[in-house]
Structures are given as C-alpha cells and as structure tokens.
Design brief:
heterodimer, A: mainly alpha, 62% helix, B: alpha+beta, six-stranded antiparallel barrel, six-stranded antiparallel beta barrel, 3 helices
Chain lengths: 172, 305
C-alpha cells in the first residue's frame, strides 16, 4: 500500500515516456520561432530534469548525442551544443542527490547556474570562432529556463504520480 | 523532501559504469575534436549529412504547425486584399510588357553583335525552384534551410535568388535539405558592380548583424550615390552577371579614415522569403584556365648562351 501525503512514493518512470519527452523537447526547439537570443533551450531543460531524476537511464552520453542533433539543426559548428550539453549533464549528475531535497523554488535557483554555464560554454565557443555577440537579451535565456523548471517538474513527474492501483474512483 | 521512486529493480551497487567525471572528459574531448575537425579540416560532412537525414522526420513534424498556419492564412485572405494584389500584379505586368517584348529582339541582336565582335557566348543559367523550410534558429548567423538537397542535384556553392534579387549561396548540402547562407551573413562576400558607374567592388554582410550589406574598401572620394543599384558583376565564377543585389542606402564619409562606410539594403526578401530558385554554379561552364606558357628563361646579364 502506498501512502499519499508526506512520504509519497513515485511509480517507476516509463522509458517510453522519457524518450517521448526528450523528442518533444527537440521538437519544441525546432519550432521556427525565429532568431531570438533569449529563446529558452527546452532540450537542455528536459535533459537536466532526467539527469536529476533518472541518472541511471539518461546520462552524459545521451546529452552529447542530442547536442549533436541540435548542432546540425541550427547549422552551428558541430560539437558546440554537444559540449555545452555534456557540461550541463555532468553538473546535473553532480547535484542530483542534493537537489531533490529542496522545495521547488530553491531547486529553480540551484539549477540556474547550470544553465548559465551551458550558455557561457556556447557563447565562448562562438566568440572564439569569430561570431558576433548576439545581444544582451541572451542573459534572459538561462533565467527563463530556471523559471520553467517547476513547470517542467510538474509536467514530467505527473505520469509517475498516478495511482498504483487505478480503480473506478481514481481512473488515473 | 526527496521523492522516493517505487522501482521494481534495485539500483546496481557495484556496476556503476564509468564515473561522471571520466565521461565528462571523454565527451568533451570528442566534442572539441569534432569542432576542430569541422572548422579547420571540414571532414565531418558525412556525419553531419547522416545526422541531418536522421533529424529530417522531426524537422518535418516541427514544420507542420507552420504550414497549417500559412494554409489557414492563405485561405482566409479577404476578397479586398486579393483584388488589390491582382491589381498590383497587372500594373507590374504592364510596366514589364514593353521590356519583355523587346527581349527577343535584344537577345538576337546581342547574339549577332557577340559573333560580330568575336566575343564568348553568354553563359546559360539553369534554375531549380525550392521552398524555404525554416530560418536557422541560430542568432549568430544568417542562414535558411531549403527543401532540396543532394537527392535533387543541388551543388555546393550554387547561387540562390528570389523574385527580386540575389538571396545567398548554398554552403552545405545534405541528402534531403541544403543550407543557404544569406548575403547579409557577416561571413559572406559577393562581388558587385555599380550599375551607374560600372565600378566593381565587394559587398560584405553587415558585421553588426543589422540585416544589411556593407560595401568595403571604397575610397572616401569614390563615386557612389545614395540609391545606386548594385548587381552581380560575374567575375567570381559563381553568380551569373546582372542579378540585382542591393541598393545603396547610406554613405558615411569620415575624415579620419581613407575609406567610406557604405551601407546597402538587400533587394531580396532576406527575412520571410518562402520560395527561391537555386541556380547552377557558373564555375562548371567557365572555360578552363589556359595552360601556362613555357617560362621564358631570363637572359643572364652579360652572359652569352
């Protein structure tokens, strides 16, 4: 019997759902919203989420591969997002035991440096490669990503919060 | 409070795999290697093409909402705007009718004159229509992705035009799609000719990323005026001559530099273009370079040979 309330246990995460969410994030990144430096990187957000919640399943290797995909889509230098996602995933793995003990608002503040580092890696590779600075609104991107952290946490944990023994009163 | 998970299998105690730090080192090294290989040696094209093909279904899926919105927008065009557009089109047609009817005669005349003057035949230009899939979401560069690739016979370096002027150049070809770098990208240069004066020069994408072009290396006393039309000069072996590129917008002559800053506005719809024509690169038609004549042996001073 699973107790609701203080010590809530979650259902195991389904691998299908993890992959579907990663693909959905890739799809969101690919939606043609135009060239905005402040656009949050949904892929980074979902990768950090699964790295924190399922470090056994989603690790650095997968982050690297998705980074390569984003590079090809954005016509960027091959390996640039791969490097920034690798760093992101590493730091997420580093903090995954600590992070979940905090309330949601503190979690958002604690993942903010991760996104800042990821965008910094991205920006420094661009600048070394001779690209122009895209504008200060770039600073907004990690902040928006950190603000989206609670939203993503609620959305992606929802399937695991379902009842373990669905009946007529609790169909989900 | 951490949330426990009701996993059916216990986490492995001893089989943990490589440590996160060693993985970080390994994948960072691979990423750095890929970046160097991509920017310096350009050997990663097969990997990129394979990834692009694998990503194509997802990209196609991401394009669907945009297509739906466009289709609905086209469907909901009011009668009023349709009428206006039709009127504009017929006005344009009238304006072009005279020139269009003279083309046949001028072409014939041009051909005869060229034969008379013993000039080389003008190059033939072949084109292929393509649809713009999306603007690359990269805020650092100006590129678009078009819907034709290696499978349709797009060649690397082909010039791309739209209905009003030169748009850019194909810089990467994947099996199903290609990347077009726009003329306003700061890394692209295009040789142009000022139609009014006949002076050739080079136009570069605006370094500040303002969406314009810059005519560089023109002396501050050079003969340029606001509103001059710049067309391709055809000396590069890439773009066919005579395609409109840009119009001069603003000239800043400063006392402290020997060069004028000349800003131009591209004529092609660099943002929001939907249909383009990819031309075959001219380099395939250009006659090969004549063989080097035998080096003349310099006569030694005072020597008898």
């Amino acid at each position: 019997m699973i107790m609701r309330g203080v010590q809530q246990l979650l259902l195991p995460a389904s691998p299908t759902f993890i992959w579907a969410s990663l693909l959905a994030a890739l799809l969101l990144d690919m939606l043609p919203f135009g060239r905005n430096p402040w656009m949050p990187d949904f892929m980074a957000l979902v990768l950090v989420f699964w790295n924190v919640h399922q470090p056994q399943r989603i690790g650095i290797a997968l982050a690297f591969l998705f980074g390569l995909g984003v590079d090809v889509h954005q016509t960027a230098l091959l390996g640039q997002h791969a490097l920034s996602y690798t760093a992101l995933s590493f730091f997420a793995t580093m903090i995954h035991r600590r992070l979940l003990w905090f309330p949601m608002s503190s979690q958002a503040i604690q993942v903010l440096p991760l996104f800042v580092v990821s965008h910094l890696v991205d920006l420094s590779i661009r600048l070394v490669n001779g690209d122009a600075f895209p504008g200060w609104s770039l600073l907004l991107a990690p902040i928006i990503e950190a603000l989206l952290w609670p939203v993503v946490s609620v959305l992606l944990l929802a399937p695991q919060r379902r009842a373990p023994d669905p009946d007529e009163n609790r169909p989900l | 409070m951490s949330l426990g998970t009701l996993d059916r299998s216990p986490p492995p105690f001893f089989k943990q795999g490589a440590s996160a730090f060693s993985k970080l080192l390994l994948f960072s090294a691979i990423a750095l290697f890929l970046m160097v290989a991509d920017s310096r040696f350009s050997v990663t094209q097969p990997l990129r093409a394979a990834l692009a093909t694998a990503l194509y279904p997802v990209q196609w899926l991401a394009m669907q909402p945009v297509r739906a919105v466009r289709a609905v927008g086209d469907y909901l065009t009011t009668l009023e705007s349709a009428k206006t557009e039709s009127q504009e089109a017929s006005t344009k047609l009238l304006a072009q009718a005279l020139r269009a009817s003279q083309v046949e005669q001028l072409t014939l005349e041009n051909k005869r004159l060229r034969i008379l003057l013993d000039l080389r035949e003008q190059l033939k230009v072949e084109g292929m229509a393509a649809e713009v899939l999306y603007d690359a979401a990269d805020p650092y560069t100006r590129k678009v992705i078009i819907s034709k690739g290696m499978a349709s016979g797009i060649a690397l370096g082909s010039p791309v035009i739209d209905e009003s002027g030169v748009l850019g150049q194909v810089t990467r070809v994947h099996p199903l799609v290609s990347e077009v770098t726009l003329i306003i990208d700061r890394d692209l240069a295009i040789p142009v000719l000022n139609v009014r004066t006949g002076v050739r020069s080079l136009a570069f994408g605006d370094a500040a990323g303002g969406g314009g072009l810059e005519l560089r290396f023109m002396g501050s006393n050079s003969d340029v005026l606001q509103g001059d039309l710049l067309t391709t000069s055809g000396v590069d072996g890439v773009y066919p001559p005579g395609l409109p590129v840009a119009r001069i917008d603003r000239i800043e002559r400063r006392a402290e530099t020997a060069f004028a800053r000349i800003h131009c506005i591209p004529l092609a719809l660099v943002s929001g273009v939907r249909h383009v024509v990819v031309l075959a690169p001219q380099s395939s038609q250009i006659a090969p370079r004549p063989p080097e004549s035998a080096p003349v042996t310099p006569v030694k001073k005072g020597g008898r040979s």
